[in-house]
Specification:
It is a single chain. This protein has 307 residues and is of the alpha+beta class. The chain has three domains: 122 residues, PH-domain like (Roll), CATH 2.30.29; 43 residues; 89 residues, Roll (PH-domain like), CATH 2.30.29. The chain is 25% helix and 34% strand. It is built from five helices and 14 strands. The strands form four sheets. It has a four-stranded antiparallel beta sheet, with helices on one face. Strands 8-9-10-11 form a four-stranded antiparallel beta sheet. A hairpin with a 3-residue loop joins strand 10 and strand 11. Helix 1 packs antiparallel against helix 2. The longest helix has 23 residues.
């Protein structure tokens, strides 16, 4: 007879003023199986998917049995109901994978601090050594946030997101996933809140460093790739640095059209003509680094804002 798995016990509990990444209070049975590190600075939010009531993982033999049953039933139903062997095999494979995925033991514990963020993953066993994923803000220079609402034949099918921090070392720190919520934020506990709050705290960290750049250069620069190499935001103006024409400064008062729609920024000078590309600048929200800081700079420095 096998001995039961030992249980990893963490004595760490958040103070009463620490909330989850979505802004709610952690539940009483939240199991923070690893404590936060002091290197991430003052703790801002904490979350975990593990509960104190969560038992040990399901035995592999039982999981395999569930997979076989789920695959066999779906294969039989499709084959005898629709007489399509190929479709039946595909359905059996998909349902078998879903059964294996849904019965796995996988939990995360994550923290966001004023100087960085950290996530722990616990897989297969409560007594396993958690996998650590750490990002210190001093080790990164840019964040690219991309969110896509997917539609099939006009019907919403889900939202995917990818938050990519570019590190000074050349590596990346990525938070990605998907959720089902077309017009509002996903429910409390969804991993998206970890990404979203991390972006907010990262933006606050960057904003605290911009005064020196403004004092030195008179603007905040957002480097980009491609034909448009950088966008600069200053007091009442914007500069667009292109590979072809160099730096072009445009006063906000001289702009005819400023818009943000379907994830695309568009800026047009009042003298721009429809047959010419001059005086017209557009770029994707997902392609500009630190987009949330860019929006704040547009509002505070250039007087451009959106609801």
């Amino acid at each position: 007879m096998n001995k039961p798995n030992s249980t990893r016990v963490s004595s760490w509990q958040p103070s009463s003023d620490i909330k989850s990444h979505s802004g709610s209070l952690p539940t009483a049975d939240a199991d923070f199986f690893m404590p936060p590190q002091q290197t991430i600075g003052e703790l801002i939010s904490a979350d975990t998917t593990l509960k104190t009531s969560t038992g040990n993982p399901m035995p592999e033999l039982l999981r395999l049995t569930i997979v076989i049953v789920a695959s066999g039933l779906s294969f039989a139903i499709i084959l005898f109901g629709f007489h399509n062997a190929i479709f039946a095999l595909v359905a059996a494979g998909v349902n078998g994978w879903l059964a294996w995925f849904c019965t796995r033991f996988h939990h995360t514990c994550s923290y966001i601090g004023s100087k960085g963020l950290i996530k722990y993953e616990l897989v297969n066993s409560r007594s396993a050594m958690p996998k650590e994923s750490l990002l210190l803000f001093t080790d990164a220079h840019s964040l690219y946030a991309k969110t896509i609402r997917n539609y099939t034949n006009g019907f919403y099918t889900g939202t995917t997101y990818t938050y990519t921090w570019k590190k000074n070392s050349g590596n990346e720190y990525v938070i990605s996933g998907n959720y089902q919520s077309e017009k509002s934020s996903p429910k409390d506990g969804d991993p998206w809140h970890f990404a979203n709050t991390s972006e907010s705290v990262w933006s606050s960290y960057l904003l605290s460093t911009l005064d020196a750049q403004i004092d030195r250069d008179g603007y905040v620069e957002f480097p980009m790739g491609g034909a448009l190499q950088a966008v600069r935001v200053g007091q009442g103006f914007m500069e667009f640095v292109t590979r072809k024409d160099g730096s072009q400064r445009v006063m906000v008062a001289d702009m005819r059209d400023i818009s943000l729609g379907s994830g695309t920024f568009q800026f047009k000078h009042q003298d721009a003509r429809w047959w010419s590309g001059k005086g017209k600048y557009s770029f994707e929200y997902a392609n500009i680094p630190n987009a949330r800081v860019f929006l704040i700079c547009l509002g505070e420095l250039a007087g451009i804002s959106w609801d």
